[in-house]
Amino acid sequence: xxxxxxxxxxxxxxxTGAQEREKLRGKILSLVKNFVDAEITSEFRPGEDAxxxxxxxxxSDEIQYMVxxxxxxxxxxxxxxxxxxxxxxDFLNVKHLRxxxxxxxxxxxxxxxxTSPKLGERAVVAGDxxxxxxxxxxTTVNPILQNGAVPVFLDIELGTYNxxxxxxxxxxxxxxxxxxxxxxxxxxxxxxxxxxxCKKHNLWLVEDTCDALGSTYAGRPVGSFGDFGTLSFxxxxxxxxxxxxxxxxxxxxxxxxxxxxxxxxRDCYCPxxxxxxxxxxxxxxxxQLGGDLPDGYDHKxxxxxxxxxxxxxxxxxxxxxxxxxxxxxxxxxxxxxxxxLKKGLESLSEHVFLPTATPNSNPAWFxxxxxxxxxxPDARRRFISYLDHHKIDTRLLFGGxxxxxxxxxGRHYRIHKQLSATDQVLKNTFWVGLYPGLGNAQLDYVINxxxxxxxxx
Length: 457
Hints:
By secondary structure, the chain is an alpha/beta fold. The chain has 14 helices and 15 strands. It has helices at about 1-35, 60-70, 80-90, 105-115, 140-145, 170, 190-200, 250-260, 285-290, 315-325, 325-345, 380-390, 420-430, 440-455; strands spanning about 95-100, 130-135, 150-155, 175-180, 205-210, 215, 220, 230, 245-250, 350-355, 360, 365-370, 395, 415, 430-435. It has an eight-stranded mixed β-sheet, with helices on both faces. A four-stranded antiparallel β-sheet has the order 10-12-15-13. A three-stranded antiparallel β-sheet has the order 7-6-11, with no helix packed on it. Strand 6 (about 215) and strand 7 form a beta hairpin. The longest helix has about 35 residues, at about 1-35.
């Protein structure tokens, strides 16, 4: 019949069109690979080429994946994000991992999740105390403040630049609900002590692993010890997707809460573009959910938390997926660069205090911390100005001592004992880069500049 032939003809044309599109896609991706692989690299020129503290290291896989995601035309989280979340969860040996739009958002989602009424008496409420440190990046501490809790600042150890773990128990009060700490510059804090204290006192533990992807403690990935771990994929970090982050946990209960805070605060957990995952979309009742909504209200529009929209795009995830395939090599290069730099600088102990790995750990180092031993108030400023003049980039240890930062003026926090070492960091500490884009030629130049500076004093 004519109508049957017409349908068959349409099917053939449709199939032929799909095949042509796939051929074009293949050609585009092949050209992208050729373009990236043709990038010209030049040898390092000491004193002329800058040595940054960090930077992105991209290859053809990342660019091809991003182009392929663009060709999909799916702009929110999609198939690349699903693959990235699954692959990174496997790497970290955790059950649940969800991407967010930054490491700062990951910290916000993780801590905010601990305030959920769904956690009953264990929920963190305004006025509860959270043990942390002031020597670090502000967004490890900010979620505590933003949720009305009180940061309790403990001092750190020079060398590891992590919390003085033996002081934690002395800082606990009947208001203490959680511990939230970063693994400083990729160096794990004393997880054995911290985890033991958390179990003893029934405290939540949030591990900020934004600078520590690939670091291990007792052979386990950091971030897998606490109730939540967090990551950042800003270009400075171990892998990048430009902007982005992740929150992960082994608790299905906590992950459902975290998803809610990430996804507008809604109670519904359907992925983008999908409906009725629970097969009960119009059957929920106020008795089940709380609130005062009509029974059968559309579950997609029931909100159980004061949340946000913190998802990423699939193109970002595509870049992250390409980076994930190179993560092991990035980690190894960071470790090699740390060892090379420390060996090269070890005879300068009279002038600089060098970093030390926490016992029982294997850091995937983010940066190489240096503390000036000089008591002169301008010693650090003079040295980093010298390095800057010689095109060696440096960074301070983030906020130094956060209690001296303008934004903390007038805010409610508590200091346990004194922050003596933290104040030393504020005045005398900086770090130089170890990222995989640096090789021995750049590190040798850094080492030589260190020796030239101190030999001239």
